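Quick one - inputs below.
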Amino acid sequence: MRFDTPATINPIDQMRIIGQPVDRIDGPRKTTGTAPYAYERHEVARDQAYGYVLGAGIAKGIITAMDTAAARAVPGVLAIVTTLDMPRLEKGSMNTASLFGGPEVQHYHQAIAVVVAESFEQARDAAAMIRVDYARAPGRFDLAAEASKAQPVGADSGAPVESRVGDFEAAFAQAPVTLDATYTTPDESHAMMEPHASIAAWDGDKLTLWTSSQMIAWGKRDLATTLGIPAENLRLDSPYIGGGFGGKLFLRADAVLAALGARAAQRPVKLTLTRPLIANNTTHRPATIQRIRIGAGRDGRIIAIAHESTSGDLPEGQPELAVAQTRLLYAGANRLTAMRLAVLDLPEGNSMRAPGEAPGLMALEVAMDEMAEKLGMDPVEFRIANDTQVDPEQPDRRFSQRQLVKCLRLGAERFGWSERNATPGQRREGPWLVGMGMAAGFRNNLVMPSAARVRLDAQGDVTVETDMTDIGTGSYTIIAQTAAEMMGVPLERVTVRLGDSSFPASAGSGGQWGGNSSTAGVYAACVKLREAVAQRLGFNSAEATFVDGQVRAGNHSVPLGQAAGADGIAAEDRIEYGDLAKRYQQSTFAGHFVEVGVDAATGETRVRRMLAVCGAGRILNPKSACSQVIGAMTMGVGAALMEELAVDKRHGFFVNHDLAGYEVPVHADIPHQEVSFLDEADPMSSPMKAKGVGELGICGVGAAISNAMYNATGIRLRDYPLTLDKLIDRLPQVA
Amino acid sequence: MIGASEACIATHPSDMAVAMRALDAAVETVKADGTARRIPIAEFHHLPSNTPHIETALEQGEFITAVTLPPPPGGQHFYRKVRDRASYAFALVSVAAVVQRDGSGRVALGGVAHKPWRVEAAEAALPRGAKPAMAAILEGARPTHENAFKVTLAERILASVLAEARS
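Output:
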């Protein structure tokens, strides 16, 4: 199905099942431990041996020798494969750093060996006995030090290295009120609950990989490339995933080394990246240095706005797209955005939840708060005064739907924003300095082709198969809701099977495109199935309705099972997109409101309450969507207050590579969160009229917290995370 | 940032031992050969020196059987633990304090040294306030760029403790 004209009325609009806050259908399996994750799939292959990955102990250089004799003598060891056993393996199209092979070390903890043994402990013990000789090379590990050498870079290869409208410099120079400030965000780790894990089993030259991946089709394609085998000899299966946040978008070392280990040991191999390996072996959100300049008239209208961001990555890497939202969020005739990329020899920087907007808004929305103060305007009103209904760089491109103003107004009302004292540092409750802050949330809505197969059987039951993944987001449930709505059956008559590369290729889970795109693919397959059913019954498919387990047309009504016949009936289709996303800007919007307390003596900051009002198209399931936004807001608290991969600038690695040292919020940090959604349906996004929400929830949260801390204390911090060591010298004297 | 050596700047992470240090607890142990002994908590934890792997007075095969506290010293007792998140984190700095009605008292610090940090001689400065007291407690500290904030933080925590004791 090609989606190239705005959606009109369709069966999804009935919203009998779509749009209902139903419990997740995989919930009972999750809560009873019967939803097996990759490392727990003991039954899929007999005689599974254990793999253990050894990571490089230097950040950059050459391995001159590896002595595995002592390791091979460890009881239970079945095979050892080292990076010196083969030339560098070909990289998958989504990888920057090599995953294995050859003597060169590109970053710390890059995989250099896998040990396969009868037990995990034996494999780990043997791995520790591998002696490695390195010739260490100097590396570049300090973004601030390398920033002056950073090169201009576009969003992707071939894209312009900067965007310009009007004459920013002239307009900024003449603006009556201006801000020129620099903000920094640190490297961050996905810190998902389930580590990367894979079980690999060869059958001749065919490989099955039970794994934990957000993107099955990418993983299959890139693993085939890296192993040098035809993709058709490969099957990936990933039905349950314990979080990803972008960390499992791409092929990683667990998959490659499970496959190599299994081939060497001639046994199925089970392998996980241990927690201390993940921060440096895999990808992370890169640190940024962002300069923002805003010029406005005294009426509060932005005349000039510029956002420049510098980040770093390995050679051939990508920039963090931190300027993305600044091209679209606010009006202003004179505009400039630009990115620069420095070469760093730290582990690979790559996507993490809302890449671009998440760190970009942590800067932009603080700058907006600073400007509002300079203008003597309320921060909500300043944003509303600069709202735009068109792409400010291309004013003939309208937003498909943009209700940011409504999000902000409704949020302000619900949160009690009028109680905020505009003069900072005025509200004291016991030991706490209390403040309120807000920020706009913004994240583009991306659409991706997505296919599904839907089968109707003689009992009238519906089965959906697609390689879509559920990374804890609720994919199973909204896909079941879609099929139930389309086929006119209750939810419990639908079975959803996900994550298997033998199923039709889906959008996968990333970039908050998964929910809308994958259900649109299921919609397309259901439309085809409805046509096939109608045709079999001799009904006019345009007239046929599917309600209460029946197909009806005119005076005729046939039970679905009977219509399916003894052999059942199946249909497969794929949603593809025309140029609506080019003609109209599709984005999602939020108003984030936060109240914090800052301990006046110690500078400890604790969030007291949070509210997000989101405008993100049709909400397919308010319960799972709300969970997504709550989780993202929590991640935003982490980004604002505590998350930081600490760089050892001498040896070139992230020091705090576990969940004790890399702090994310705990329950006690998250007291009260409220989420509400505007009642929207965006006919430009897909037949589902839905958009993404999973990343919108983090976008703007960090800035709202920062602004609340400023309102509480009168201290403006511009370097994340906003930890107490940065406040302590500027707090009022202890009584 | 104090009591560290070239070999080690790691800080002692526990909370309980810090409070025990302020309360003059004693650690009762039994050795592998069955002999028992009683170690004052002040002598229990070691500074790193050039043997950072030896963290306590415990010998090979010796284990703790009891920790005993002397009779309560009176006064108000405080334990303040400061950290970047609300739970499940080691202290950046913790302060265990006993403050008497006349302003005298005891202070032990966590998160600043390789062992719970207490300087009894410095406590004479306590009635004069947090600033002179903490300056005396942390005399000789060699903070790095990364942990210099702990000097200010320790003083501010103590100041808020003393303020609360007065109120």
